[in-house]
């Protein structure tokens, strides 16, 4: 079983739409959680950390449910520039595990 | 820009050869992690170096080895290259080991023929 599982998509949504990505992790001892964004042929870039209380950064909201071992990312009012692959990342204390990524294309 | 740099940007090698990839960590960061990212996959953890010592290793064979220098820059060495080693190799630096946020360099694209 993979440490981190994501729906690979692709998600194709119109500009202005709201889109949600989900991710599950297998290790209940996981300690920290992140969403990274990766543009085509570029390196991953930190989008936001994910906290149990949930956190918001502009149009982006991340949630963590430790009981269900589930992480989510909500993007509101999608922009063309949001088109990218979104990687769910889980840290177990000494190792980071990445999901395969979810591909998002925002259509004009 | 994260301040993490990697060299070279691209590399072509043949099967059986050896390769060395380099990474300079962000100023103030003492931890470097290396990842292999195959096409269509997420990054896979190779190993991490903290203050010049290996601090964790993923499921990669011993022909993948590394070093970290006193200035916290790092090298990834791969011996006896195989076709499946073709991938994007990413270096990430963090302020400390453990749960600290990682910042990635632009990567080195390795093609093994």
Short description:
The complex is a heterodimer of chains A (108) and B (113). Chain A is mainly beta and 108 residues long.
Number of strands of chain B: 11
Order of helices and strands of chain B: EEEEEEEEEEE
Distance between the termini of chain A: 38 Å
Q: Helical region count of chain A?
A: 0
Low-confidence stretches of chain B: none
Strand content of chain B: over 45%
Largest sheet of chain B: 7 strands, mixed
**H/I helix tally of chain B:** 0
Report the radius of gyration of chain B as a whole number of Å. 13 Å
Largest sheet of chain A: 6 strands, mixed
Mean pLDDT of chain B: 94
Question: Average pLDDT across residues of chain A?
Answer: 93
Q: Which ranges of chain A are low-confidence, i.e. pLDDT below 50, for 5 or more consecutive residues?
A: none
- Based on secondary structure, the structural category of chain A is mainly beta
Please identify the oligomeric state. Answer: heterodimer
Biggest interface in this structure? A-B, 21 and 25 residues
The helix/strand series of chain A, from N terminus to C terminus, equals EEEEEEEEEEE
Q: Give the strand tally of chain A.
A: 11
Helix proportion range of chain A: under 10%
Using only CA atoms, what is the Rg of chain A? Answer: 13 Å
């Amino acid at each position: 079983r993979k440490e981190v599982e994501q729906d690979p998509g692709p998600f194709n949504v119109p500009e202005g739409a709201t889109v949600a990505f989900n991710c599950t992790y297998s290790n209940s001892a996981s300690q920290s959680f992140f969403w990274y964004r990766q543009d085509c042929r570029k390196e991953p870039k930190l989008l936001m950390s994910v906290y149990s209380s949930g956190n918001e950064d502009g149009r982006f909201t991340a949630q963590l449910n430790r009981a269900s071992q589930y992480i989510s990312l909500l993007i509101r009012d999608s922009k063309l520039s949001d088109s990218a692959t979104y990687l769910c990342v889980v840290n177990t204390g000494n190792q980071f595990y990445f999901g395969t990524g979810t591909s998002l294309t925002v259509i004009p | 820009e994260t301040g993490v740099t990697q060299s070279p940007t691209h590399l072509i090698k043949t099967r059986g050869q050896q390769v060395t990839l380099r990474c300079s960590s962000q100023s103030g960061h003492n931890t470097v992690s290396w990842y292999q990212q195959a096409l269509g996959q997420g990054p896979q953890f190779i190993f991490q170096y903290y203050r010049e010592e290996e601090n964790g290793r993923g499921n990669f064979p011993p022909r993948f080895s590394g070093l970290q220098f006193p200035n916290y820059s790092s090298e990834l060495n791969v011996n006896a290259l195989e076709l499946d080693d073709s991938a994007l190799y990413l270096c990430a630096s963090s302020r400390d080991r453990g749960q600290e946020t990682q910042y990635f360099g632009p990567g080195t694209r390795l093609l093994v023929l």
